[in-house]
Amino acid sequence: MRQDQVEPDQRRSARVCAGADRAASGPVLFDAVLLDRDGTLVEDVPYNGDPEKVRPMPGTRAALDRLRAAGLKLAVVTNQSGLARGCFGEAQMRAVHARVEELLGRFDAWLVCPHDDGDGCGCRKPAPGLVHAAARELGTVPSRCVLVGDIGRDMTAALAAGAAGILVPTPVTRPQEVAAAPQVAADLPAAVAEILRRQTALDPATYGQPALDPAIRGRAGTRGWTGTGTVPPGDRRERGGTVLVVRSDSAGDVLVTGPGIRAVAATAGRVVMLCGPRGRAAAELLPGVDEIVEHPLPWIDPTPDPVDPADMATLTDRLAAVGADEAVIFTSFHQSALPLALLLRLAGVGRISAISDDYPGALLDVRHRVPAGVPEPERALSLAAAAGYTLAHHDEPALRLRPAPEPPPGAGEPGYVVLHPGSAAQARGCPPELAARIVRTLTSAGYRVVVTGGPGERELTAQVAGDDAVDLGGRTGLAELAATVARAGAVVVGNTGPAHLAAAHGVPVVSLFAPTVPFGQWGPWRVPTVRLGDAEAPCRDTRAARCPVPGHPCLSGVGAGQVLDALRLLGVAPAALPARDGGGAGDRVPAAASTGGSGR
Fold first, then answer.
1. Which residues touch 132 (CB under 8 Å, ≥6 apart)?
2. CB atoms inside a 10 Å sphere around CB 447
3. Alpha-carbon dihedral of residues 282, 288, 290, 294, nearest 10 degrees?
4. Engineered SS bond to 180: which of 345, 500, 511, 535, CB 3.0-4.6 Å?
5. What is the pLDDT of residue 600?
6. Residues 584 and 129: beta-carbon distance below 8 Å
7. Coil, strand or helix: which one is 370?
8. Nearest partner of 380 among 246, 213, 230, 195, judged by Cα
9. What b/e string do you get for 190-208 counting C-beta neighbours within 10 Å, with b at 16 or more?
10. Sign of CA pseudo-dihedral 345, 351, 357, 360
């Protein structure tokens, strides 16, 4: 329910906020910021219908003005069950909102849910209906919005719509909600600072890196330079030159690096990718990659062979044969780019960019730094920007893949639910007993389920599928798996490669996310998602590949019914029946996302 439905004479027309009028040379990550009202913008007064009780949270007006100055649209998305309960009327609510705007400035839209928990609406948070409605009102899409709120319902609504979420805790915020949030800020001003930082981090101008012709830039002498400046319109780099891009990791790691590689490819004449054997199949799916050099790196691989001087000499020769004008080394936050940078120097590469907290000496020309917890695709895009590369004008900051082939015939008609129980890292897979229960629960509810897995997981997928689901275990390479995922109504998966395949195809994800790594960094990016699992489990932030706690407690406590509720929250109906507009399917809340609060 929009505020303008309560107050027709004050209806405001929707405004397109695609950022076309913004003077930015990089891609636009966010068009709009959506804000919860009580506890986020103003002090939480239960069922408040009195304008005199409106008290802004500290620093709110200045923070909102920063967003307005940056060209971002602002909307309020608020549960107001006091209307349904008769605690106040529409006129009183309008008066409260008028007072909020008097103190905090005008908002571009007000979206209000007037229902109570038992009403079964699709707009009451944690359902994503208000987020969908706000995006439409502002002329954008949820993936280009970020929602700031103070309780778990806000974060669940944001993620279920495909928006970003930032939690600003208050005394009513539960510890498990803080642990499960994709990102946490101390207060609203800090959340705004992070939104603006993430927005500008993808713009080469932020780093003072004009997108020049490689020959011109090479003469400019940019070694180690991290200044600021603006990219003059006439300094757009002409397409040309060979760039070596590197991500030597598993398939999922390579997939999330895709946006950064596309940014490089937008202006490079030729892109050669160095990857390891575990990421080769994923590299073949990435748009923008012209050639692939496969070679394991012993400082990256989880089970490396001893360093062999002859093998390193062979690698150096292979890199020299590429004839790269420059290299961009993409790494994860715990990896070092410096050993490879040394080999690239020996191979004669003239310009090297990488993220490095360690002092690089003469090994790097562009030494980039990124705060902890940044989503991996944004981390890659920010390194590309620091090196002077940005996505093409028509390209969106999103995961993308080359066109998928046909899935195996046994998958059936589109609209099934893919369940992928395994993972190369055991700690991040779904316990087999839980996966089997999920299959039985979903098929009993009318869903068609397809179970997928690699060649070494045939026994697992057979156990999980039983007689109720289609078993494709061992029958798909990564390309065929991507095709299977692309035709799914949703994917139920742990923190592993198929989650990113789903994000690349815009397929909703029920994320059985083991908290061994941060969800905000490694969770599905810019796609409707419901996170399940114990975010406070003892394995949290251990980066463990094998579960360090007996019984896999972070996921074993998930109920199969929670997965069913998550699909309904995402608007994914059985047998691919169309979900109702607004992306909501009732108000049932996955246990990991439920919250208390003052009846909002």
1. 142, 161, 581, 582, 583, 584
2. 25
3. -30
4. 535
5. 60
6. yes
7. coil
8. 246
9. ebbebbbebbbbbbbbbbb
10. positive
What ranges make up the beta strands (E) of 440-593?
Answer: 449-451, 470-471, 490-493, 509-512, 529-532
Contact by Cβ (8 Å): 232, 210: yes
What phi and psi, each to the nearest 5 degrees, are found at residue 341? -60, -35
> Could you tell me the two tokens for 333?
């936050």
**Which pLDDT tens digit goes with each residue over 323-348?**
999 999 999 988 999 999 999 999 99
- Give Cα 478 distance to the centre of its chain: 21
Scan for tokens 């003059």, then name that residue: 232
**pLDDT tens readout for residues 353-377:** 999 999 999 999 999 999 999 999 9
CA dist., res. 258 & res. 111, Å (int): 35
Helices (H), 301-390: 309-322, 338-346, 376-386
Residue linked to tokens 């490879």 = 340
Q: Could you give the CA distance from residue 395 to residue 286 in angstroms, rounded to a whole number?
A: 14
Give the Cα separation of 166 and 146 in Å (integer): 7
> Exposure string (b/e) for 358-369, b if CB count within 10 Å is 16 or more?
eebeebbbbbbe
Cβ-in-10-Å burial (0-12, 13-18, 19+) of 381 comes to buried
Tokens at 396, concatenated: 């969106």
Alpha carbon dihedral 515, 521, 523, 527, in 10-degree steps, equals: 160
Structure tokens at 416: 């099934």
Residue whose structure tokens are 């101390």? 186
Query: How many helices and strands, by DSSP H and E, does the chain display?
Result: 21, 17
**Cα–Cα separations (whole angstroms), residue 453 to 462, 470, 475, 481:** 10, 12, 8, 9
DSSP for 120-169 reads --SSSTTSSHHHHHHHHHTTS-GGGEEEEESSHHHHHHHHHHT-EEEE--
Residue 35 forms beta bridges with which residues? 76, 148
Q: How far is the C-alpha of 316 from the C-alpha of 390, rounded, in Å?
A: 28
User: Amino acid identity, residue 44?
Assistant: D
- Cβ contact 184:167 at 8 Å: yes
Quick: pLDDT tens for 231-261: 333 333 444 799 999 999 999 999 999 999 9
Do 194 and 351 contact (CB within 8 A), yes or no? no
Question: Tokens 């129980």, residue?
Answer: 421
Active site residues: 36, 38
Beta carbons of 3 and 97 less than 8 angstroms apart: yes
Which of 16-20, 147-151, 270-274 comes out lowest in average pLDDT? 16-20
Question: Residue holding tokens 């000499």?
Answer: 313
Neighbouring CB atoms inside 10 A of 528's CB total 28
The residue type at 406: E
Q: Are 1 and 113 in contact (CB under 8 A)?
A: yes
Q: Which of 406, 527, 539, 540 is nearest to 477 (CA)?
A: 406
Amino acid at 113: C
**In the numeric block, which tokens belong to residue 242?**
């060979």
